[in-house]
Design a protein that fits this description.
Mean pLDDT: 88
Largest sheet: 4 strands, parallel
Strand order of the largest sheet: 2-1-3-4
Order of helices and strands: HEHEHEHEHHEHEHEHEH
Number of strands: 8
Radius of gyration: 21 Å
CATH class of the largest domain: Alpha Beta
Shape: elongated
CATH superfamily of the largest domain: Nitrogenase molybdenum iron protein domain
Helix content: 40-55%
Strand content: 5-15%
CATH architecture of the largest domain: 3-Layer(aba) Sandwich
Length: 313
């Protein structure tokens, strides 16, 4: 996969005649047009629209329900990347093998990993290609730092609209501050003994740390990780011994793994009933237009409401 991506990138570079930039990257010529921004995920795209407002055009590489861990760029996607004034990717190896492509582009064109080098990153489990958990958006306070990074990146390429980007980001950051307080308050409705969040993969570590929940995933930080019968039984034993009454599927991950866990619980712990929560959680992607999870704020609010509904009393 790595060879394929770098090979495709090499083709694009040869066709475009681009070479490695020497010294500071030149700012794009935005005379008479808006800046073209490509965001890899819906969460980044949503924040970028909020900050950039009318001065930018935002394209999102990975749409609703797309798993960024497994995403592979097509030749058309590579063209979208190359034709952008600024590429904003999550970094911390969220985008899997595409990390190589973005690191290569950053040598010659504006390409920013918005979560790279954040303070407060959590260590990933052994076997993940990166060293840190990339799912930073589940801690709203940490995501606010990402919004500031997006603001500064837009100012770097388009300084004439600096005041607008600063004003827009200030408004959005106030909304996120309120959202963070809302999540804290809602989690308190769940009895402390029941604050255990079990999901298809380990995407909610930052959520657990920020809002006081124990978090377990069937798969690891990446959905590319293998799952064994031993993993299923270990999670089933946790559920059965702790009497956890609900587990959660995710919109961007097939639910068959969680269904196997439920079968294992029911087989070993007779008389105890655990259910798959009525509503799936948004994890690595936003929802479809018109859904509760079509924006970042909507995604977070939907998730916490679904968790409180399933685990609260």
């Amino acid at each position: 996969m790595r060879i394929l991506l770098l090979g495709l990138l090499g083709i694009v570079l040869s066709l475009s005649g681009c070479k490695k930039a020497e010294g500071p990257l030149p700012k794009p010529d935005l005379t008479g047009r808006k800046a073209k921004i490509l965001a890899t995920t819906g969460m980044i795209a949503d924040a970028t629209r909020a900050v950039g407002g009318e001065h930018i055009e935002v394209d999102c590489l990975m749409g609703p329900g797309i798993d960024p861990h497994l995403f592979v760029a097509s030749p058309g996607d590579l063209s979208r990347i190359e034709n952008s004034d600024l590429v904003l990717f999550n970094g911390v190896h969220l985008e899997g093998k595409m990390s190589d492509l973005f690191e290569e582009r950053a040598k010659r064109a504006w390409t920013i990993g918005v979560a790279d080098h954040l303070d407060g990153l959590q260590t990933a489990e052994e076997g993940f290609e990166g060293t840190h958990d990339p799912h930073v958006w589940f801690d709203v306070k940490l995501w606010m730092k990402v919004v500031e990074k997006i603001r500064d990146s837009l100012i770097d390429i388009d300084p004439k609209n600096t005041e607008s980007y600063r004003a827009n980001s200030a408004n959005y950051l106030r909304e996120l501050e309120s959202l963070d307080r809302e999540v804290h308050a809602k989690i308190q409705r769940i009895p402390e003994v029941s604050r255990v969040l079990i999901t298809a993969h380990d995407a909610f570590g930052y959520f657990g740390r920020a809002y006081g929940m124990e978090v377990k995933g069937l798969q690891g930080v990446s959905t590319a990780a293998d799952t064994s019968g031993k993993d299923v039984q270990a999670l089933a034993d946790l559920i059965g011994t702790r009497k956890i009454k609900a587990v959660f599927a995710e919109t961007s991950v097939p639910s068959k793994g969680m269904e196997a866990v439920l079968r294992a619980v029911r087989s070993k712990y007779k008389g105890f009933e655990v259910k798959l929560a009525d509503e799936e959680l948004y994890s690595d992607a936003l929802g479809q237009p018109g859904s509760k999870g079509e924006t970042y704020i909507g995604m977070v609010r939907h998730n916490v409401d679904a968790v409180v509904k399933a685990l609260g009393e």
